[in-house]
């Protein structure tokens, strides 16, 4: 008799689990219906997609004084609004954000324009699922390894300070279609990211948008903190 009771309880549990509807999956199915990741995430062609980008350098691996290059490793975050990935949270158990595989949705085609290596200039954010909010806000992230070109000047050695530009932009669309900006500043149209980094400083690391007519963005480094 006891085994029969256990069997009945187990059967009831299976029925409850099989009848459960995952709101995350339900939302994804609804918003991804007829979705085309090759199209910009706007309903009017005249709308500019504002992409906010943040970079964090984790490690300066090497500095090549002869080739005038530097190798960097770090993390990249990008946010934008997708007008097709929206839903009424009240209809889905007040679920306000879900995770979607990044390759399923539109993403900006970011590229490092001053790459010192011809095979490593595209930036991909497909390794981690993107977070999508009910208002259409998308947060995507990825890792990067940059070989950037520099212009070294060792005339003040050993107290020299070197500057290397990091220039990122969308390589598919012009600024009227996809524009990069800094989340800490205003929404001015800037095609370039300026990143300042000092390994010896404890101050927060950040980048600021600058116009291309200005001096190039810089990465500051101290040769005592670079792997050889």
Automatic annotation (TrEMBL):
Annotated InterPro entries: Neur_chan_lig-bd, Neur_chan_lig-bd_sf, Neur_channel, Neurotransmitter_ion_chnl_CS
Main localization category: membrane
Signal peptide: 1-19
Key words, A-Z: Membrane, Signal
Residues in Neurotransmitter-gated ion-channel ligand-binding domain copies: 27-181
Example GO molecular function: extracellular ligand-gated monoatomic ion channel activity
Family matches, as Pfam families: Neur_chan_LBD (PF02931)
GO cellular component, one term: membrane
Membrane topology field: Multi-pass membrane protein
Record CDD domains: LGIC_ECD_cation (cd18989)
Record localization: Membrane
Record protein name field: Neurotransmitter-gated ion-channel ligand-binding domain-containing protein
Organism of derivation: Steinernema hermaphroditum
């Amino acid at each position: 008799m006891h085994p029969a009771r256990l069997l009945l309880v187990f059967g009831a549990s299976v029925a409850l689990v099989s009848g459960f509807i995952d709101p995350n999956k339900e939302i994804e199915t609804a918003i991804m219906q007829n979705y085309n990741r090759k199209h910009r995430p706007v309903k009017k062609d005249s709308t500019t997609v504002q992409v906010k980008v943040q970079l964090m350098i984790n490690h300066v691996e090497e500095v090549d004084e002869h080739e005038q290059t530097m190798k960097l490793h770090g993390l990249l975050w990008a946010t934008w609004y997708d007008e097709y990935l929206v839903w009424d949270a009240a209809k889905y158990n007040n679920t306000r954000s879900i995770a979607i595989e990044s390759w399923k949705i539109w993403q900006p085609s970011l590229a490092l324009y001053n790459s010192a290596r011809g095979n490593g200039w595209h930036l991909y954010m497909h390794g981690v699922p993107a977070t999508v909010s009910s208002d259409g806000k998308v947060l995507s992230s990825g890792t990067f390894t940059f070989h950037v070109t520099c212009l070294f000047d060792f005339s003040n050695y050993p107290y020299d300070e070197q500057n290397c530009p990091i220039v990122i932009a969308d390589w598919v669309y012009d600024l009227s279609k996809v524009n990069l900006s800094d989340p800490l500043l205003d929404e001015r149209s800037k095609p370039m990211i300026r990143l300042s980094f000092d390994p010896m400083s404890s101050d927060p690391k950040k980048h600021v948008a600058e116009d291309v007519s200005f001096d190039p963005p810089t990465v500051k480094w101290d040769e005592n903190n670079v792997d050889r």
